[in-house]
Automatic annotation (TrEMBL):
Pfam families: DUF2383. It comes from marine sediment metagenome. This is DUF2383 domain-containing protein. Residues 11-107 form the DUF2383 domain. Gene3D superfamilies: 1.20.1260.10.
Length: 147
């Protein structure tokens, strides 16, 4: 394992971090949202992303690198802010769904910006898979938000 990462390794690490953070946030939201159907929706989205995270971790290992865990302190702070915001709203479930929708929109923007980060075909395939998952989750969340 080299101290310096290649362009491919950096791109894969960023993608892995984004996927893993999104899984962590969905799992956290599922734990505190009061509506059981919404909690199940969040758990399902997280579960759908876990195979992608596992595949990314393996691809990173195949490049001679190790997958880097997301910043736990940053995640804990973000999750605390999400919970506080949700606790002080009239409709907690609607607010948490809205938060997840905003997070998906931010993910979509980051993914659009990083699309051509590396021409590596493996990265491109995994990137597109995550883009599709974000699009599907956004659509599902929009439907839940309108209900």
């Amino acid at each position: 394992m080299s101290i310096l990462r290649s362009e491919q390794q950096l791109a894969l690490q960023q993608l892995y971090r984004l996927v893993q953070e999104s899984i962590d946030h969905y799992r956290d939201s599922a734990e505190f949202v009061e509506d059981s159907n919404t909690a199940q929706l969040f758990t399902r989205i997280a579960s759908e992303r876990e195979p992608l995270a596992e595949q990314l971790a393996q691809v990173i290992r195949d490049t001679g690198d190790l997958p880097a865990a997301p910043d736990a302190d940053k995640e804990a702070g973000e999750q605390m802010l999400h919970r506080l915001r949700a606790w002080f709203t009239a409709d907690q479930t609607r607010d948490v769904v809205k938060q997840r929708l905003q997070a998906e929109a931010e993910l979509a923007k980051v993914l659009a910006d990083s699309k051509n980060q590396t021409p590596d075909k493996t990265y491109q395939a995994l990137h597109q898979r995550f883009v599709t998952q974000v699009e599907n989750a956004s659509q599902t969340l929009k439907q839940a938000h309108q209900a």
